Amino acid sequence: MTHSGQKRDERYRAIMETAARLICERGYEGTSMQEIAAACRMTKAGLYHHVQNKEQLLFDIMSYGMDAFEGQVLEKVRDIPDPIERLRECMRLNIELVTCGFSKEVIIILHEHATLTGEARAFIDGRKKRYVRFLEDSFSEAVRVGRARPVQPTVAAFAFLGMVLWIYKWFQPDGRLSVQQIAEGMVDLLFNGVVAPAGTLPVPAPGEAPVLSLVPPTVVGGES
Amino acid sequence: MTHSGQKRDERYRAIMETAARLICERGYEGTSMQEIAAACRMTKAGLYHHVQNKEQLLFDIMSYGMDAFEGQVLEKVRDIPDPIERLRECMRLNIELVTCGFSKEVIIILHEHATLTGEARAFIDGRKKRYVRFLEDSFSEAVRVGRARPVQPTVAAFAFLGMVLWIYKWFQPDGRLSVQQIAEGMVDLLFNGVVAPAGTLPVPAPGEAPVLSLVPPTVVGGES
Lengths: 224, 224
Description:
Number of domains of chain A: 2
Oligomer: homodimer
Order of helices and strands of chain A: HHHHHHHHHH
Largest sheet of chain A: none
CATH architecture of the largest domain in chain A: Orthogonal Bundle
Strand content of chain A: under 5%
CATH superfamily of the largest domain in chain A: Tetracycline Repressor, domain 2
Shape of chain A: elongated
Helix content of chain A: 55-70%
């Protein structure tokens, strides 16, 4: 990348940060390009030099948030061999992301999920669905290798996501609970009851069906 | 109530139902009173005969949803003596409410939480906070009487709420998971690890501090 390309990127990132703050406060419909330009100390024409239109800006903010999520959460846990440790660490890191630096972008991804249309929406939805699959696959693996008692992987994945992603609705950075208390509390609440007590579940041989699965294969999967 | 008062109420309920459907689809900012009137097969003047302004209509829809929630969930479980049974039944009924009849109103309460202003917002927020307190109190009681291992009541309350209220983001009425599978799965996931194994936690005498509480009193409570 050229030096001027980098500078343009930094400038654009600053615009996205400012726009994300405004959209978070006022909603997408309630924020005009004029207001975004003013908050960036630019003219509206100057803003349109950097961005095609408001929907493109929203898509870019969401992509920027998804990049942060994938870099700071998914890529860091993907290769943890034990599925329960992978899920626990994933929950901790995702809670950090939601409560710390990227909360604006995360809120917009979550709150404006129905605002994008067409291909842009399908693209962001695809990235979100990959995360759901990753969670479902990790829960399935945990059951299969005897690390978890039989839980329905889709329900478990969405329980995980609900616990983590709802935090943006109630968390106050200056509240009485620290991020660490919340993260450890949530990890404990979900996984204490999921992990199979040591020695209670036999580990099936590779390729063999799990011995104690109560989940018939026909109900695996779920949201259509 | 007079017969004509009842008829007016029914008419108003039908207006709220229609408005709720539109606001759900398009968002509050994206829905005009003109569109609501048209969907109700009324003139705009006719609509203003029933409702003062759009913010009043939003407040009335949220109040209607909160009435439904309190009548169909909270009042039905409030008097269950065992705190764990109370919480389990509360989760089941709340999941039914979110997935069935009142999903539009629930979505609006959740999604447009920052749209109301002033007293109207404070009033709805107060009703929501009473629910959070009810959950925190029930988890505290479960720990105190030895029915639950020590969990932080605020984290547990928001874990419960996240699991239940996130469902509106992903649930598909024609999906592969039934409401009952989701409800039983969620109840199992949260409470399997919370309930104290029989006989492991001594029940303290009334007024006595719980013997095994790991939660120092100073961290109880949380969101500010």
